[in-house]
Amino acid sequence: MNIFLDDFIIFNDMESHLLKLWKCFEICEVFGININLKKCIFLVFFKMILGFTISKEGKLLDPEKIKAIVNMLSPTQFHDIQVFNGFTQFYYFL
């Protein structure tokens, strides 16, 4: 599961997906987290969501984001380092 602010994604194989989805809903209920079903997407086989490409092969990094990081100029000032850090932190824990 990846969580980003008020969105989350559950990555699984089809065999275990329903069980893990159910556990996620139970945890949301325990902590009083409301889920807006109109905004939910289930059984996504290929889609760009929260900076990831979701496919049958698993989650893949967004090639455009990787290209942006690779093509960034070397940071020369403190603010440039902060921008670079913000860009790269997203993919640090993958």
Q: How would you describe this structure in keywords?
A:
3 helices, two-stranded antiparallel sheet, three-stranded antiparallel beta sheet, alpha+beta, 94 residues
Chain-wise SSE layout:
Layout: E1 2-4, E2 7-9, H1 14-30, E3 47-49, E4 52-55, E5 58-61, H2 63-70, H3 78-92
Antiparallel strand pairs: 1-2, 3-4, 4-5
Indicate the proportion of strand residues: 15-25%
Which parts are unreliable, with pLDDT below 50 for 5 consecutive residues or more? none
Rounded mean pLDDT is 78
Q: Supply Rg.
A: 17 Å
Strands across the major sheet, in which order?
Answer: 3-4-5
Oligomer: single chain
| Tally of domains | 2
Helical proportion, percent range: 40-55%
Main beta sheet: strand number and arrangement?
3 strands, antiparallel
- Tertiary shape: elongated
Total helical elements: 3
End-to-end CA span: 11 Å
The number of E-state strands comes to 5
Q: Provide the succession of SSEs.
A: EEHEEEHH
Q: Which class of secondary structure composition applies to the elements?
A: alpha+beta
